[in-house]
């Protein structure tokens, strides 16, 4: 078999040209699961000899030092505890309010975004006016910046330092990557975020999708309103995040066409979905014993993501009741109240090695909220899912897996032990879920380059060539009217109308001449 | 450095699943340079253990047995000599007529297409009604078919055998790959074939481009008219080539964004431009001595492609005169009349090792017609070009290199020794051409996977998974009105108008009530 390693030859060639060297990369990540998704890439870039400097606020939920990198922190006017309280309070709404309607969910998500935005705006102000650190970063003369479009600070820093920017995004709420890269995205078959539509829409769904598509640019402006104001003040000229992100060299999209519906992509949109699928480790002895305890029935893995480890007592009871009635054992990441008569087949843990568990041959089902990382771990390991979307992009993620016949979806607001039991039995006992999941998993994993390698390659490419100008479409130089050829259509329409008028007039003239001469003849 | 070879792991995984095995591939290539472009891929697929069956007509210009494959031939009602005469006669027009206008060139190209089409239609009829061979091919139970959209036979065979099709195209005259894959291609910045526009167009150019874009579907139907009739007769139902090609699993595009202007691509459009850049061999002793003969001045390589090895005597004289005045030596693939006083620095050859010569450090310039293969060889080796487009896609190819400042363009119809000399001196002595070419070459060669490996990967992917259904957009299930959301726009417009009318009526009603009551009060 031919080894897919001729990139090495290219690198050797570039080395001869003197253009390969370790690059200098500035990383400004976003907090929470966004950092989890970026960390392996950052560490791999450092491990390969690049000088990687990660700049993070002193208070953060999950960000901290990473291997093979230098971490610099800057003071912020809030503490980690305040951040935790802010985020938790915005998530409490998830279960306390009645949010069965899509509008309520949407409102709640925007409330969460507002809360996060407040902290991110504080980050922006804290770093931009931290003269010492800014001067230090300027002196470092970076080749590129790797950042997250969720965190406006990275975009502003790329503009300030005048270095090419690489954005790594996870299902951005207003599809900023499509908007900024000028990617055509026909609303007739590309569903917009939060619609939970598939790519095959009814007339009504297409109408809703069209309205959402029309509102998207406004939504993007809304999300970045405060950041736009700060950036304009800082640069002392009118500037917007959408404009700055339009200058991106490359976008990494945390998706893959095994999950995402097929759609056109611009050349600088690179799909790296499933990047986190790391090598699995064997389970600890006690876990191994536990999962083998129910023999061929196997076991179920249950987590609701890094942000949600508790449930209201009544809701939790529904889960315990359902688990009591299945022959499988259950591993549940849960720190909430435990009923006295909790079933014996359930093991509660503060943290569980999710990927290692899902890779175990006896894993029969995965109960998940449908976060991107969990989804790809389930997909990589071919485990059918029962999905309970909580907020954000999770509803769309879940829809994509349900459409492919590899998952069942439940609503957290009206979940009962019967419903959960029904869904669990379906995905475990109906063989079609496992078969379809194995096929989808094989397609997802059958790729010419591993996602992490692809992300490393493009980051280093941007550092080597000081950008990726050859991937930048001329569409960026056109205004809205020109891009959509409205001026040309108007002109061609005018030409056509003029042509038809002239033709009609000519015919009329000829006809009259003919009539006149025939009348003359008659008279003669 | 991390080795980009984890594809091996995936393959091993698939091997465990039992889904990796040598595939069975049917190849139906097109003749001439199209076969030259497909042969390395076909041979590599065979070398990797796939069962590759190449089906070609008994008479052909350049097709024949290839390594590691089985070649089957079928009788056709023409001889190789007739084919050669047909093609040559269509190319004679190139120099004999006055074809300085774009329209003349376009007409001449369509004439050439018609001639080629006549032979291709004969191929279709010869194979489709060759019962023995058709039965044999049916029995072989292929996993996929690799073919060229230029040769309608391959598309019809994919429909007949019901196997997924992979098309490898080189700048198709009606952009069939974009049309068939439903790829958005905004005419405001994506120039159409034969326009020789760049991606930055004036208003007038955008208007012309828009008209060309509107005519493209009709052009595609025109090209395949005869094939459509034969296919409809064969399948006994109305069917068209565009419809069959719309079911393609994957399209290989012989281009790269180092040459092509950036534009959106569908997920099943795979760019493999530069696939032919094979390892170079050292020159033979006499060639090495010849190219070193002019010391640091270096040498010039001159070919006009596989189809044109002669020139009218007067034209040829202009070239000899120009070459006489340069300090470089010249290697020219030429079989025409040689003047008695031909300059000593010119070596004429029937065939020359183009890639090996271009890879030589003393190669200073490349005089070429701008065919795709030659263009990528020049690009890979970083040699500035003087380009003389003759027909077909060459004008567009040349434009792309000229825009990037790595080539000068000349018109064959009014070429003189002065003009040639000026262009040659410019690309050799003005260092910017070489510098820009080296940068472009580095960008072109800096890629995560070599084009040949990428083509091999996707061909085997289609064989492994019986297609690439996950890359097929839902756009294929929409009609023209639905795709462009015209029904939705109409509906939303109606809703808006109704809303405005109701609002106006309500205001009117309220206003009247108010007026009436105030009038009443006044009267009272």
From TrEMBL, chains A, B:
Molecular function GO labels: glucuronosyltransferase activity
Keyword annotations of the record: Endoplasmic reticulum, Glycoprotein, Glycosyltransferase, Membrane, Signal, Transferase, Transmembrane, Transmembrane helix
Catalytic activity entry: glucuronate acceptor + UDP-alpha-D-glucuronate = acceptor beta-D-glucuronoside + UDP + H(+)
Transmembrane segments annotated in the record for this chain: 488-511
PROSITE patterns: UDPGT (PS00375)
GO CC terms: endoplasmic reticulum membrane
Assigned protein family: Belongs to the UDP-glycosyltransferase family.
Protein's name in the database: UDP-glucuronosyltransferase
Native species: Astyanax mexicanus
